[in-house]
Amino acid sequence: MSIVMSISPPPPSASSSSSSSSPLASPPTPSSVPSPASLPVRTIPGSYGWPLIGSIPDRLDYFWFQGPETFFKKRLDKYKSTVFRTNIPPSFPFFFNVNPQVIAVLDCKSFSHMFDMDLVEKKNVLVGDFMPSVKFTGDIRVGAYLDPSEPQHSKVKNFAMDILKQSSKTWCQELMSSLSTLWDTIEADLSNNSSASILFPLQQFIFTFLTKCLIGADPSISPEIATSGYAMLDRWLALQLLPTVKIGILQPLEEIFLHSFAYPFFLVSGDYRKLYEFVEQNGKEVLQRGKTEFGLSKEESIHNLLFVLGFNAFGGFSVHLPSLINTIASDTSGLQQRIVQEVRSNGGSTLSFDSVREMDLVQSVVYETLRLNPPVPLQFARARKDFKISSHDSAYEIKKGELLCGYQPLVMKDPKIFSEPESFKPDRFKDNKELLNYLYWSNGPQTGSPSESNKQCAAKDYVTLTACLFVAYLFRRYDSITGSSTSITAVEKAKK
Ligand code: HEM
User: Fold this and answer.
1) In terms of pTM, does the model score above 0.90?
2) Ligand 1 pocket, CB under 6 A
3) Over 60: is that where the pLDDT of 6 sits?
4) Please, what CATH class does the domain formed by 147-374+420-493 belong to?
């Protein structure tokens, strides 16, 4: 089947209407969070331990003995509460200036308070109280670290949303052409080997596609950026995030070498300079819009563009697409045949944003993958004032300045919202669209809209549409694929 491209802007946010019932009558979005007055007030359980050294056992549990998911789960079970106090790394003894004390919020209702900008502040808390050096972003605080109350946030967020709107004209076309290259590469590898690694081809694909769309420049203009651009971003990302992420290498080596200090920017300054110059020389049109439409200096535009491209977009898709491939390629329940049926009988011959609207199963599979594998697992927000937070069964007093920490992999398994929460149910969101009110991967409900007044992902709709198009392309090209998140072992071409 041939795949021709068409151009169409993304649809508005998904509708929340549904005929089926949901465990909750209305979403726990800020406007409708039930009044804590009707719930019993409970002291927040848990403790931070002794000053300074109290955080060490929690750090070791988090990175070594338990890992993040078990860490949060064990404390949830111990306190019989989805809201509790704990420390999370990075922390003492080497990170003196970082306060590890947080209030964990682990159900859909308490988590949703982090979307209410009247209650919480998002200044410098993207990855917690620890903030990577601004040296990684040209000595400026880029948009993701700004609170909506800071005027610069509006400029940068609107700039990001404008870039997406402008690029929607070529988004599908670039996606299809990059996908064609990706799967040609995988097929060529498979013709010589029993398995094709997808790690590098996939990252190459993500980088090329996003650079064309967001910067408006083809990386092939620069041979070095074309071949190594994605690896440059990987290194730049890794150095910023290492103190916060469990890698899984031999302990105590990981604790000593990766979690005890922040790596300096100079190790990747050469890479960053090359990426900066690439945008400066080849992204003139988008830089001009940054200046005339949003009042951003050239430097501000470039550093923000690199962050959106490298951290938000490349980082997000590099986690999400492998989990989507894994979900589908490892399925043995007949899901692939159902997807084949849907993507070939709906959406017309031309794959576009509009086509995906006609593919309910594909959308539901993407949403369910985002529910079970939220690519950005942790979200943070600081109390702007004293307020009461409510879980499903209790209310708790939060004091101004306290840091809330939501761990999405558990929040997205809230049994009060999602039936059989641990199971992958491909039709879950197809059968009950109201559940989209509780899908939070974008730091806001899937039914919400990103704006300058909130901190929801600027590309909320583009991400899900792109993932759906990825799946639709795949099953117009193949009858079946077999593999995992790291490799493909077989593809069966579509019978004409
Ligand atoms: C699978 C891919 C992606 C995922 C999982 C993702 C996820 C997120 C999340 C969770 C946040 C909120 C972080 C926080 O403040 O706690 C966010 C913010 C943001 N994302 Fe995405 N994102 C993805 C792709 C993209 C893309 C393609 C763009 C391109 C424009 C983008 C632009 C942004 C921007 C600009 C923000 C900051 C919003 C603000 O400051 O108000 N993201 N993203």
Assistant:
1) yes
2) 122, 126, 143-144, 157, 160, 164, 308, 312-313, 316-317, 320, 375-376, 379, 441-443, 455, 457-459, 462-463
3) no
4) mainly alpha
